[in-house]
Each structure stands twice: as structure tokens, then as C-alpha cells.
């Protein structure tokens, strides 16, 4: 069994209040909650720093925890929830971002299972193949490299692994074998608590990737390799309009009228 915590911050930099943006008659965060509930999780909790999101979550029937406002990341918010609810040290918690309403419930379940099947791992996360050189060279696309057992060796914004024999003029000609890191995580509660207690590390600060803090402290990250990347989340107004069109079209195809279920 596993739990899901959905960090849902109100003051998003690029799209404020996006968690409450209406999509087919429901706030964005409700779509995420419904996907998480369909994953088979024992418990699904919305974790927010804002009373407006808590009121909305309660209105659609979600369990919601009002957390501290000063958390630097969603991971810290998830750790606060696990601590306040006194979840068992060996319990598994999946962090599902509140701005990803297209998350596949089966993927949440698979990630929790991947961590459960590796008793030596503290964390599990996902990767998908990089398909284009543009993506490979993009610093916003975080690359991951793993060992033979499927555990993370390193994450970077740089193009790794570097294809030395296929990079004329210091520009790669191919990117086969490269993996993109996707920001879906599962944690054992004990590992989550340890991670949240650690100060930022040099590599984390240099790359601006918090998962490097875990690796620098010797924590083990199990990597679940996917065949294709899941649909992207909502960061901008354009993203919101794209997702809104998809979900509203899906509602009409289902023959259901938009509105709370």
C-alpha cells in the first residue's frame, strides 16, 4: 500500500492561482486528486499553503493539510505532511505535483511498486528516452544516468552521457541512450524525513537540482524507465489552455456534462 501527497501552492510564479483554474467545471487540482484516487492509493492528501485551496479541496471531498508557507520545495511540503500524520517510517509516499492533471493513475501505482520492490532504495523516480538533439542540449531538460541495477548515478542539465565519438565541433550528432528525468517521486517516509533535514549541497546548488542532495549523501534512488514521457503539466497560460481543451474534449466524448463529480 502507498499514500499520495499532492503539493498545491497558490502563489505560482508563472501562473498564480493555477491550482484553482477551472477546467470543465472543476479546479485543476481536483483533476489531479481524481487521478491519484484512481491509482489505488490508500490515502490521497492535498498539501497546501493557502486557505483558498484548502476550502476548494474540502468542497470536492479531498483530505487536505494546511502546511507552512515558507517551504522551498514541494518535497519539503510532502515531508511536513508525513511528519504531521505520523506515517510509518517504512510507508511509501508518492509526490504527485498539483499542476499535472494528465497524470496516469497506473504510473503512480507503478512507481510506488518500483520502490516497494527495492528495499535498499530510499527514493524512486521516473525517466523517459530523449528523442531529439534539441531536447538533449536543452538545459531545461534534466538528464539522468543510471547504473546496471537501475539506480541513479547522476542528474544534470548538461547533455550526458556525452557521445565523445559522435560530437564533431563539440556538438553531438546523436542522443541515443540518453534519458530525460521526470519529476515524479516516491519516497520511503524515513528517507523523506532524512532528505528534508539535510542542507542544500554543492552539486544541488550548482545544478539547481534537489535530487542531487540525496545522491551526495549516499541515498539510493531507484529509477523507473518509461517507454514514453507522460503529458506535460501546467506551467503557463498556454499550457492551461492546451490541457483545458484536452480535458473538456474528453468530458464531451464521455457524454458527461462538465461539473463536479
Summarize the model shown.
With 261 residues, this protein is of the alpha/beta class. Helix content is 33%, strand content 21%. It has one domain: Spore Coat Polysaccharide Biosynthesis Protein SpsA, Chain A.
Q: How helical, in percent, are the residues?
A: 25-40%
Let me know the largest β-sheet.
9 strands, mixed
What is the CATH C level class, in words?
Alpha Beta
CATH homolog superfamily: Spore Coat Polysaccharide Biosynthesis Protein SpsA, Chain A
Number of domains: 1
Q: How are the secondary structure elements laid out?
A:
Layout: E1 3-8, E2 22-23, E3 26-27, H1 28-37, E4 43-48, H2 51-59, E5 63-66, H3 74-84, E6 92-95, H4 105-116, E7 123-129, H5 133-137, E8 143-146, E9 152-156, E10 179-188, H6 189-197, H7 202-207, H8 211-216, E11 221-225, H9 237-254
Quick tags:
261 residues, alpha/beta, Spore Coat Polysaccharide Biosynthesis Protein SpsA, Chain A, two-stranded antiparallel sheet, 9 helices, 33% helix, globular, disordered C terminus
How would you describe this protein?
It is a single chain. By secondary structure, this protein is α/β, with parallel strands linked by helices. The chain has one domain (3-254): Alpha-Beta Complex (Spore Coat Polysaccharide Biosynthesis Protein SpsA, Chain A), CATH 3.90.550.10. Helices cover 33% and strands 21% of the residues. It has 9 helices and 11 strands. It has helices at 28-37, 51-59, 74-84, 105-116, 133-137, 189-197, 202-207, 211-216, 237-254; strands at residues 3-8, 22-23, 26-27, 43-48, 63-66, 92-95, 123-129, 143-146, 152-156, 179-188, 221-225. Strands 1, 4, 5, 6, 7, 8, 9, 10 and 11 form a 9-stranded mixed sheet that branches. Strands 2-3 form a two-stranded antiparallel ribbon. Helix 3 crosses helix 6. It is globular and about 60 Å long. The chain starts with a strand and ends in a 7-residue tail after the last helix. The model is unreliable at 255-261 (pLDDT under 50).
Amino acid at each position: 500500500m502507498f499514500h499520495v501527497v499532492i503539493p498545491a501552492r497558490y502563489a505560482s510564479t508563472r501562473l498564480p492561482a493555477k491550482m484553482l483554474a477551472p477546467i470543465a467545471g472543476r479546479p485543476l487540482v481536483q483533476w489531479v486528486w481524481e487521478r491519484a484516487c484512481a491509482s489505488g492509493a490508500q490515502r490521497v492528501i492535498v498539501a497546501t499553503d493557502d486557505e483558498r485551496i484548502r476550502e476548494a479541496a474540502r468542497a470536492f471531498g479531498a483530505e487536505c493539510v494546511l502546511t507552512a508557507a515558507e517551504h522551498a520545495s514541494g518535497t519539503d511540503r510532502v515531508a511536513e505532511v508525513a511528519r504531521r500524520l505520523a506515517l510509518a517510517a517504512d510507508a511509501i509516499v508518492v509526490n504527485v505535483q498539483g499542476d499535472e492533471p494528465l497524470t496516469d493513475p497506473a504510473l503512480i501505482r507503478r512507481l510506488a511498486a518500483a520502490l516497494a520492490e527495492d528495499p535498499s532504495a530510499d527514493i524512486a523516480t521516473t525517466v523517459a528516452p530523449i528523442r531529439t538533439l534539441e531536447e538533449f542540449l536543452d538545459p531545461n531538460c534534466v538528464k539522468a544516468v543510471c547504473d546496471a541495477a537501475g539506480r541513479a548515478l547522476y542528474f544534470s542539465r548538461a547533455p550526458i552521457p556525452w557521445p565523445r565519438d559522435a560530437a564533431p565541433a563539440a556538438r553531438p550528432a546523436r542522443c541515443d541512450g540518453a534519458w530525460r528525468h521526470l519529476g515524479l517521486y516516491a519516497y520511503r517516509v524515513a528517507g523523506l524525513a532524512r532528505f528534508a533535514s539535510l542542507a542544500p549541497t554543492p552539486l544541488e546548488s550548482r545544478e539547481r537540482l534537489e535530487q542531487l542532495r540525496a545522491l551526495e549523501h549516499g541515498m539510493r534512488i531507484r529509477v523507473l524507465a518509461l517507454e514514453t514521457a507522460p503529458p506535460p503539466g501546467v506551467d503557463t497560460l498556454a499550457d492551461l489552455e492546451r490541457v483545458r481543451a484536452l480535458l473538456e474534449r474528453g468530458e464531451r466524448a464521455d457524454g458527461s456534462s462538465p461539473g463536479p463529480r
